[in-house]
Design brief:
The complex is a heterodimer of chains A (399) and B (267). Chain A is 21% helix and 31% strand. With 399 residues, chain A is an alpha+beta fold. Chain A has a domain of 125 residues: Proliferating Cell Nuclear Antigen (Box). By secondary structure, chain B is of the alpha+beta class. Chain B is built from four helices and 17 strands. The chains are: A alpha+beta (399), B alpha+beta (267). At the A-B interface, strand 15 of A face helix 2 and strand 9 of B. Chain B: It is found in: Cytoplasm, Cytosol; Nucleus. Chain B: One of its GO terms (biological process) is meiotic DNA integrity checkpoint signaling.
Amino acid sequence: MDCILIGSNVKVLAKAVQSLSRLGEELYLEPQENGLALRTVNSSRSAYACFLFSPLFFQKYTPPKSSTQRCKMVIKSVQAVFKSLSSLEKTVEKCRIELDIEKSRLTFTLHCKHGLLKTHNLSFQDSESLQAVFDKEGCANTLTAQPKLLVDTVLHFPPSLEEVRVSVNDERVLFRNHVEDEAEQSKAMMTEFCLSAEEFDRFVVNMHTCITFCLKELRGLLVFAESSGLPVSLYFDEPGRPMVLSLTDSVLEVNFVLATLSEEGQPRNHNSNMRRVSEPPITDDFMNDDVDYIIAMEAGELAGDSDWPEPPRHALTPPRLHGAAGDQQESSGECEDEDGQQGAVETPVEESGRPPNKKFRSLFFGSVLPTPSQMSNRTLQSQEVLASDSEDEDGSPSP
Amino acid sequence: MRFRAKILDVGCLNSFTRVVNTISKLTKTCTLRLTADNLYFMLSDKVANGGVSMWCELDQGNFFDEFQMEGVASDANEIYLELVPENLSRALRTAQNAKSLKAKLTKKHCPCLTLAAELPSLSSVSRVVTHDIPVDVIPRKLWHDFREPTVPDFDVSIYLPPLKTMKNVIDRMKNLSNFLVLEANRSGQMNLKIETDLVSVSTHFRDLGNPPCGDGGSQGASQDLETMAQARVDIKKLQQFLSSQQVNPSKAMCSKLIYPSIHLLPI
């Protein structure tokens, strides 16, 4: 892969990296036919972000010949390349990014003023595809607003605020800070902010609902949105299903996917319901990658003790693996059972592009390096997790 | 027990916010006393060993367009609340361009002071932000703890130099010592001195001016104009006080010296 960026687009890329750095620690870079994708996921895997730069964003973009150029690196090293944003605009005229698979090297060459050339060689790890699957159009509610509106909204909440509840009806949206802990409730200051539907560029509410998610994960997006001036769209549905925020223009598509609390007081695991976007190449990837498996979350039916299907069970369909559900089962109260199994079998039929039926399937293709499951942290008890790591590389279920 | 108030003027809102900001920088919790005509922010730390005590009296008419209060009992028409001024400060911060601000005492999951600000918006419907600040109602039997401190007789009363200058000096001195001796006389001279084993530093201010002596000073006629009255204070507390001053940062403050304490009064 080889691409060249010029002028102010270098700054846009740098801002994208910075935005991603606020969410996760590792950057997944994947050159695709339709552009360069930069992705990350947070440590608890409850938030995912993707910046897709189309070939038009670049002065020159040479897509990879084979489709398996994917790399993962520590995001801080990429940030170091674009060190000070303000001077970037003034000094950097051109930026060239080359990906050399054989040498495992990603080279950033910054052509600066006065003939100065800065070359950064970053090494990376091969990685599997990190791609959340979600369906924006299928969400019941869609709100689109100018970024300033959202920035003004979050101003009312303290920067340290983790969770926020958003409830929506036909006329207005209410943002409230959410306090989980009973003890804290009596001490904490509660803030509520109400915006009328008229303030939004687009306000489509088909379901009166109330969702809770982590505000902190979005701050990176809001900063980027404000600097780009692009309107932000929120897609969400019932609690438990992930919400998506996206920004689009002709050369760039940004998507942030966040898990939402599944139900008041009854945190269930993995209620993310993200439907599969039909992308044929994905299955190929699964078959080809060494350490891959797909972690699938069933809506509320992770049976702790049920058999985990073997990862690549079905050749053509993303296998269902009830990843770290086991771990979470201990911490949460409930787990429903059976349907998961059945669902898995039905998958091949369903994934032919039909919108799923009521029994949602959720898929999140995650990286599956054998890091210990991160489910135990407190936030996760209430947050649903889109993906989890499994203990074993060979795909046997994690305990 | 009821309380409802409204601020409609942006200038009043800003002033009120500045007062609250000052208080929030001085202390983590304080007591708010509401009477029919006034609001008081009070803190009574034990002053004996170098603590800070604060008393702030505000005429409600200067800030509020509407103010209705019903105290705990007809013979005790006052309300004492304990709250965290930082919460109040935070709530006011984002309401600076509000069309109106309403405050009232409510009972949600606990007694709260609820502030609701109506903010300008792009549409015909205003944005409303509501903050519920948890408060503790202080029972009547504890009210006597919060009495207005009397300003005792003082030796010297002097206008302070620009706070910024003073703060700069004190910031540097803080690195060298924990205690500072402040001395002043009636000729407008003031010295800030620190002394350690290794070094002693003093900063001299001249021509500061003394307020007219008519306000209760001990006027021994024998009090010589040049005699310095001294007080030793904890630098950190002094610094904290100076950095909290936001109300009128450019105006001088009056300092009254009574050994062993200093009273600082913003004007």
